[in-house]
């Protein structure tokens, strides 16, 4: 199966959501806190 990158223009209002998704799907670093996802959920609610 071939992979293709599809790029779309994202409205500035969605920048925070985009950044949160990028962090959520980024490779896990050893210095990353366990509660990053909990912090994200708290900020979104």
State the helicity in percent bands. 40-55%
Order of helices and strands: HH
Total count of strands: 0
Unreliable sequence segments: none
**Mean pLDDT, as a whole number?**
78
Q: How much is the radius of gyration in Å?
A: 14 Å
Class by SSE composition: mainly alpha
Give the termini distance in whole angstroms.
Answer: 38 Å
Shape field:
flat
The helix tally amounts to 2
Approximately how much beta-strand content do the residues carry?
under 5%
The profile of the biggest β sheet is: none
Protein name: GNAT family N-acetyltransferase
Q: Summary?
A:
It comes from Sphingomonas telluris. The chain has 45 residues and is mostly helical. It has two helices and no strands.
Q: Mind explaining what this structure looks like?
A:
The chain is an all-alpha fold. The longest helix is centred in the middle third of the chain and has 10 residues, at 15-24. It has helices spanning 15-24, 36-44. The chain has two helices and no strands. It is flat, with a radius of gyration of 14 Å.
Annotation keywords:
mainly alpha, 2 helices, GNAT family N-acetyltransferase, single chain, about 45 residues
Topology:
Blueprint: H1 15-24, H2 36-44
């Amino acid at each position: 199966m071939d992979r293709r990158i599809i790029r779309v223009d994202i409205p500035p209002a969605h920048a925070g959501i985009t950044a949160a998704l990028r962090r959520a799907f980024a490779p896990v670093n050893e210095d990353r806190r366990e509660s990053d996802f909990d912090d994200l959920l708290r900020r979104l609610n």
